[in-house]
Design a protein that fits this description.
Elements: H1 2-29, H2 31-38, H3 41-48, H4 72-76, H5 81-93, H6 95-98, H7 104-109, H8 115-129, H9 133-136, H10 149-160
Length: about 180
């Protein structure tokens, strides 16, 4: 009997390992499919546009002649396996349905922050924590050459003080939400 238990444990371990390897391989193989077909603006805007009218306007992340304007997935879906997990988890979990409940106690106390503003503050903090990784997928800080003197001066100041993109470009695409006090440096 002990030999049979050892054999069954070994078989179970091998099967679990094989399933894990296959699952990760399939997920990584489908990363281009996720980025190119699933995480498209039409899919995102089906749910998000009713809450943020600015997403439907032409005020999207600006493009230039060398590079087209960014779409939702360019900033919100990280490359690789983490982006896959986020995308399918977000689509399957209805996460935004649960984020909008009001806190009656906080609202009466005057401390209530609208869900959209709360989410904006959290995302901006995330940009700082990750050193503006979503921006740096497409942009190399050293290659950005503003045309106006003010922009050149501001970018040089940001480089000197080691400030990230989000310090100035906090209302680039979505509805304008004022940053909380002390955020802008």
């Amino acid at each position: 009997m002990p030999a049979l238990q050892f054999l069954s444990r070994r078989v179970i371990t091998v099967v679990i390992a094989a399933v894990a390897v296959i699952a990760v391989s399939v997920a990584l193989a489908f990363e281009p499919v996720t980025r190119d077909f699933v995480a498209q603006d039409g899919v995102c805007l089906y749910c998000h546009a009713p809450f943020d009218e600015d997403l439907l306007s032409d005020a999207r992340h600006p493009g230039d002649t060398a590079q087209p304007a960014a779409d939702c997935a360019d900033c919100h879906v990280t490359p690789g396996f983490a982006g896959l997990i986020f995308t399918y988890g977000h689509l399957a979990s209805f996460t935004d349905f649960y984020g909008g409940f009001r806190s009656a106690y906080a609202e009466r106390a005057g401390d209530w922050v609208a869900p959209l503003a709360r989410r904006s503050h959290r995302v901006r903090d995330g940009y700082r924590e990750t050193d503006n990784a979503s921006c740096r997928w497409c942009h190399d800080y050293a290659d950005i050459k503003p045309k106006k003197k003010r922009g050149q001066r501001s970018h040089q100041e940001a480089i000197d003080e080691k400030l990230g993109c989000i310090n100035c470009h906090y209302n680039l695409v979505h509805r304008e939400i004022e940053p909380r006090k002390g955020f802008v440096k």
